[in-house]
Amino acid sequence: VNLFNNKSVSYQPTDKLSKVSKLLRSSRHLDGRDFVYFVNSAMFLDQLCAIDILENIVDCSFDGVPCNIQVNTSDSFRTKFVKEIKTMKHGRCVTVNTRGEPLLKTRKSGTKDGLRLVIQMDPNEEMDLFSPLSGLKVIVHDSVRFPHLENADIIALPGEYVSVAAEKEVLKRLGPPYGQCQKNFIDDYGYDYSDSYCLDKCYNLQIKDTCDCIAESVGNKTEEFINDLGICRYDNTVQRKCIDNIRKSGELCNCLPSCEEISFTTSSFKVEINHEFLVLKNFISERLLLERMSRQSNLNLRSAYDRKPLNISNTLMIHLYLKTQYYESVEETPIVTDFDFVSGLGGIAGLFLGMSFVSGMEILEFIFDSFCQCCKRLRTKRTAD
C-alpha cells in the first residue's frame, strides 16, 4: 500500500482477508464497535503513516499575528509552543499551550482574535477504515491536564469553517473534613490529577495487570508497556474474554474529584468555506509577504509563510477564541466553620452556665426565705404560748 512522504508498507492481503471476515462475523454488534475497540495503531505505524498536522498547516495566526512571529528567538513555533501526544486510539495528536512549554497569553476576547488555523488534508493520506468519522477532533482543555480525547465533541471536516468559543470555569471543592476530593499533584506522566484521567488509567491498568496486554493508551509511556506486553488482540479469545469480564465486573476505582478544577465550556458553529475568499486571501498574503521580504530579511517571517500549494477542496479552517475575558468561579464553603462551631458552643455554654447560676441563686433565695418564714412562725408560736 503506497502511503505518503515516499514511504510504503508491504503486506500479503490474501491470508488476512479471511481473518478479518472471521473477526467481523464474531462481532456482537452491527456497527462492530466491540471489534473497533481492539483496533489500535502501533507505534511504528504512527511514526510511518500518521499525518503530521503541523506539516499540513497552511496558515496560522494568534491574535492576528503569524504564529512564527510570536517567537522572538531562533526556535520555531512548533518546538516552543506545541507538544505531540501519542495515543493508541487517535494516533498522533498535537496540543498548544501545554505544561513544560511557554504559554501564549492573550488579554483579548471575541471573534476578531484567538488562534486561527488553515489546515490542508488530503483524503488519500488518511487511513480511516475503522473510524466512522473523517477530519480532525478539537478539544479545549486545561493546559496542565491530559486531554480526554473521548470527550471531544467538535469535529472539523475538510471544506468547513469551524468557529469555537470557549468560556473558562473554575471549580473549587472542599476537602476533608467537609467533603471528599483529591488534592492536586503531578502524576508519573507529568500531568495534574483529574478524575476522568484517573478512571481511564485505572481501568487500563486493571486490564494490564489481569489480561497481560495493553488495551488503550496509558499516558505517554504506552510504548514502554507495549514492548513488554503487547497490544490486546480481538482474535485472542482469552484476552477478549478477560477484558469483557473486567467490564462486567464494574470494579470501582478510588478516583475522587479534584479539589480545584479548571474546565472550558465550548460552543461552536460550522459553515462552508467561501473558496473564492480563501483564494483571494492567500493571494494577498503572498503579495504582502513578498513586499515585506523585499524590505527586510526576516527568517521567522519566511518560515511563517512557508506555504504549500493550496487545495481548496481539502482545506479546513479552525478558529478558537475566548468568548469573554471574565470567567465563572464556583467555590464550596462550609456552612459551619470550626470557629463558628467553637463560638456557638461557647455561647451556648455561657448561656447555660449563666442560666444555671441565676437558677441556683434563686433556689438559694427560696430556701433562705423558706427558712426565715419557718423561724418567724416558730417565734410567733412561742410568744403566744
Automatic annotation (TrEMBL):
Pfam families: ASC. GO terms for cellular component: plasma membrane. It is found in: Membrane. GO terms for molecular function: catalytic activity; ligand-gated sodium channel activity. It is a multi-pass membrane protein. Keywords: Ion channel, Ion transport, Membrane, Sodium, Sodium channel, Sodium transport, Transmembrane, Transmembrane helix, Transport. GO terms for biological process: isoprenoid biosynthetic process. The keyword Membrane applies. Belongs to the amiloride-sensitive sodium channel (TC 1.A.6) family. This is Uncharacterized protein. It comes from Argulus foliaceus.
